[in-house]
Design goal:
Blueprint: E1 2-6, H1 10-21, E2 25-29, H2 33-40, H3 51-60, E3 64-67, E4 79-82, H4 97-109, E5 114-118, H5 126-140, E6 147-151, H6 161-166, E7 171-174, H7 178-188, E8 199-202, H8 204-235, H9 239-247, H10 268-281, H11 288-299, H12 302-311, E9 319-323, H13 338-348, E10 352-356, H14 361-368, E11 375-377, E12 390-393, H15 405-411, E13 416-419, H16 426-431, E14 435-438
Parallel strand pairs: 1-2, 1-4, 2-3, 4-5, 5-6, 7-8, 9-10, 9-12, 10-11, 12-13, 13-14
This protein binds uridine-5'-diphosphate-glucuronic acid (UGA).
Uridine-5'-diphosphate-glucuronic acid binds near residues 156, 257, 263, 267 and 327.
Length: about 450
């Protein structure tokens, strides 16, 4: 199949590369010429395990090409995937500016029948807008070319995106056209090795809604367990045990009920807010979804409250070593990372912070914590510890899971760990003489 992917951000780059890996002929297009020049050389704008090797391999076989112009690549293509960003607008709703600009460019440049597929996360009704925009351009050009607009929301997790794309739990396709449904099923068939029941076809609006509902459901699970963790602490229960107790019920399950310092990233915060906006725009005030966001905002600061309870309201003269800055392990992405809020709050109260993260230090330095002069950065996990007053764990990277606790104790002023991701065994740490503060269990 001949495929054009417009937008070489996270979703576009991963999707385009994986389609190429399956033998399709893919051109990824972006208006950012520097990005495209780099990609042609195999230099990626993001870190994602396995992606660079896959891009380089498919550049070599020429299954994958990069271009800044949509003009010549649309002709005789089977699919044009729209994978541009839908940033949060000022009022919290998704901003469709880029999606509709791409639709306009497609309408201005297409000369042969085409299936346009929306992969960007877009509110219900966007496929209709894309269709109208393309129709308008074709009419201006006095052309009558057959095209269809389908929705194919993406369910990739950062850090595991290649795996998610190559072995999907499901592929959701929204289309009102039986032929398009068949074409999409053929495109995805190689990704389902033994079964095709993971291909879920539905109408366009339900597919658009599915994306938001999936993310809102996952965010709800996290906020639910985080709220429970706060109650557990007050009543003298241990949320780590309660989590296992409830997860053993198959109807509940173990996944996405890990308590912590709240969810971050480019998806959950934005999508939860956008779903609220969609509901409100249609005359419904959501209570539960709204609460999911409110609980998450408060949860980010739970670890700060624990630090204040231990050291007092004024943190001047104290230094904290931070392990982990990215919003989750396996990525350098710091969008909406709890670490930003936690670190800024600590330094506002007078503390100094020494931070280490395996991948996200540049992001922190250059963007997210750029203005915070009370943060210094280190290039290995033990190096920031010397004479710090406590260690604070914020992202559960594998290299933090089984550290040398004797080394930590030797370096710190006090043997104190604040764990925002409940990674350690408290009995073991108590034996070693640590004060160990975690989420959802009173110290
Ligand atoms: C999320 C969804 O998991 C993907 O299915 C979806 O495709 C993607 O958003 C998207 O819309 O593009 P992602 O944002 O990469 O993926 O990250 P997750 O692995 O879902 O983690 C999100 C946040 O939840 C992280 O901050 C993580 O630490 C937190 N989390 C996750 C918890 O606090 N507890 C848990 O039990 C699980």
């Amino acid at each position: 199949m001949k495929i054009v992917v417009i937008g070489t951000g996270y979703v576009g780059l991963v999707s385009g590369t994986c389609f190429a890996e399956m033998g399709n002929s893919v051109t990824c297009v972006d208006i950012d010429s520097e990005k495209i020049e780099n990609l042609k050389k195999g230099i990626l704008p993001i870190f994602e395990p396995g992606l660079e090797t896959m891009v380089k391999r498919n550049l070599k076989t020429q299954n994958l090409c990069f271009s800044t112009s949509i003009k010549n690549v649309l002709d005789n293509s089977d699919f044009a995937f729209i994978a541009v960003g839908t940033p949060m607008g000022e009022d919290g709703s998704a901003d469709l500016k880029y999606v509709l600009e791409v639709a306009q460019t497609i309408g201005t440049n297409m000369n042969s029948p085409l299936t346009v597929v929306n992969k960007s996360t877009v509110p219900v009704g966007t496929a209709d807008l894309v269709k109208q925009t393309i129709e308008k351009q074709l009419k201006k050009r006095k052309l009558d070319i057959a095209f269809s607009v389908a929705s194919n929301p993406e369910f990739l997790k950062e850090g595991d995106a290649i795996n998610d794309f190559m072995k999907p739990d499901r592929v959701v396709v929204g289309t009102d056209d039986e032929l398009v449904s068949k074409k999409m099923k053929n495109l995805y068939a190689p990704f389902f090795r033994s079964t095709s029941d993971r291909f879920i076809a539905m109408d366009v609006r339900s597919a658009e809604m599915t994306k938001y509902v999936a993310n809102a459901m996952l965010a709800t699970k996290i906020s639910f367990i985080n709220e429970i963790s706060n109650i557990c602490e007050l009543v003298g229960a241990d949320v780590n045990k309660v989590r296992i107790g409830i997860g053993s019920d198959k109807r509940i399950g173990y996944s996405f009920i890990y308590p912590g310092s709240g969810y971050g990233g480019s998806c959950f915060p934005k999508d939860v807010k956008a779903l609220t906006k969609t509901a409100e725009a249609n005359g419904y005030t959501p209570k539960l979804i709204h609460a999911v966001e409110a609980v998450n905002n408060e949860q980010k600061l739970v670890i700060v409250h624990k630090i204040i309870n231990r050291f007092g309201e004024n943190l001047s003269g104290l230094e904290f070593a931070i392990w982990g800055l990215s919003f989750k392990p396996g990525t350098d992405d710091m969008r909406e990372a709890p670490s930003i809020y936690i670190i800024n709050e600590l330094t506002k109260k007078g503390a100094k912070v020494r931070a280490y993260d395996p991948k996200a230090i540049n992001e922190a330095k250059e963007f997210y914590l750029k203005d915070n002069k009370n943060v210094t950065y280190y290039d290995s996990k033990y190096s920031p510890l010397k004479n710090c007053d406590a260690l604070v764990l914020l992202t559960e990277w594998k290299e933090f899971r089984a550290p040398d606790f004797n080394e930590i104790k030797k370096e710190l002023n006090n043997a104190i760990i604040f764990d925002g991701r409940n990674q350690y065994n408290e009995e073991y740490l108590a034996e070693l003489g640590f004060e160990y503060y975690q989420i959802g269990k009173k110290f």
